[in-house]
TrEMBL record:
The keyword Metal-binding applies. The lineage of its organism: Eukaryota, Metazoa, Chordata, Craniata, Vertebrata. This is DBR1 enzyme. InterPro entries: Calcineurin-like_PHP, DBR1_C, Dbr1_N, Metallo-depent_PP-like. It is found in: Nucleus. GO terms for cellular component: nucleus.
Amino acid sequence: MKGAVAGGCHGALDKMYETLELLQRRHNVRPDLLLCCGDFQAVRNEADLRCMAVPAKYRHMQTFYRYYSGEKKAPVLTVFIGGNHEASNHLQELPYGGWVAPNIYYLGYAGVVRFRGVRIGGISGIFKSHDYRKGHFECPPYNQQTIRSAYHVRNIEVFKLKQLKRPIDIFMSHDWPRSIYHYGNKKQLLKMKSFFRQEVESNTLGSPAASELLQHLKPTYWFSAHLHVKFAAFMQHEANSKEELPKATKFLALDKCLPHRDFLQIIDVEHDPNAGDSLEYDAEWIAVLKATNSLVNVTQSTWNMPEKNGLHAKWDYSVTEEAIKEVLEELNHDLKIPCNFTLTAACYDPSKPQKNMEPVHTINPQTTEFCAQFGLTDINDRIQQAKEEGSGRGECEEEEEEEMDSTGSAEEPSEYNTDNSGLSSFNPDEIMLDEEGGDEDLSTCSVDPSPDHPPEFSTSFSDIRIMPDSMAVSSDDAMDSNNEELEKSGGSKQVEEKSSTERSLKRISGDENVNSGVKKIKRRNQAIYAAEDEDK
């Protein structure tokens, strides 16, 4: 089975799908599945723009709304996780996953599904230690704190994933697992991104929670994005017992979806030829959700997950084969995920912009149906109840100044001693925003849809690379070899270019002039959100 993997697409769905179409037309390569590693930006309308953690001047509608409305349909099954630049109110409707548009599926806060027998898992958001042990308490309308904390990874999602015992084929996270850079060409990485050096040398770059999952799940493939650089690594895992066969993970981080960037990768994945073409539930994951349902927390209170330390009567929530069998019987052995996408918000209309549209807290029928089917807690319904009962005072409204500052310094120590999931050094690819939110106005948005006529890609095909049967990362790379072409380590033979129309399969693109004439600003993803201003 051929799969395509994309870094953060930042709402540029048209470009992503046009890239795949061009790939098929020119090279007869047609992926069966598209995976996206966060920053998907499923923005339906102006209210969704307000719920995206970027400065107001960089909130642009892009093209997702056309797929949400039904004007367009994704030409390939697309599965994605959330990042740190999302319409959080939209994704929050689907905490256990669901369809955000026909043929486009969100994995939820954490999730595992199957496609053609391939087991695909993922965790949304980025790691921040000061929110890690809280519940999912946020709901729209967000304030300056909750618009960010809404996409921070929580310990309960990591705990659920750590209950899995069966092998995972593909796993996605937005931020990198901490320490993964030690298993690839670190020298080349630091040559491309010298400002990573301090974090790499202190081993604080990336997510410790994702690293924990990597060591536990040991998937065949792990894909990430977030740091805006392409990087490959190969991690050989130690066996937990003499009976366990050695496992290894092929890691690949992808760049953002911009011209002249390696944002898309093609891989070949072993699959079950007898499996159907539908996206399916994973029976073990459903059983884990049922087993851990009592742990759901929708408050800001911090707490640790059960562990074997004498303080908890139960700490092992992994499931038995009998529990998995019960799930199969509940579903009559039909694991197909129903195509029950439902519109839950008005869709953006370019002819009738509504710049004052306010976000509301919505309970999605997909989540209601899923929870009813498997006896799970509807997190959003629980938040609504807490709000009505007064126990959730301030959680969904403008909150009073809390004792916790932006670094969580007044909070109990986390089980992790740092909270950098990304960058503490200056990154020219990032837009930095004061944590106080001084230059971010949640009450306004800039509605600037992408052009109806996308750029012509036929003369600038340079954004895709095909990966062979395995992501070849040599042992020399893992030892900081002098290979100057890590970006070309996917195994594709590079063909010398004679003209822009004779380029080999690498990336797709148009013109890019990201750094020229850009006013120094604050917040992540500078190159992404500055690009449109520069085009004007």
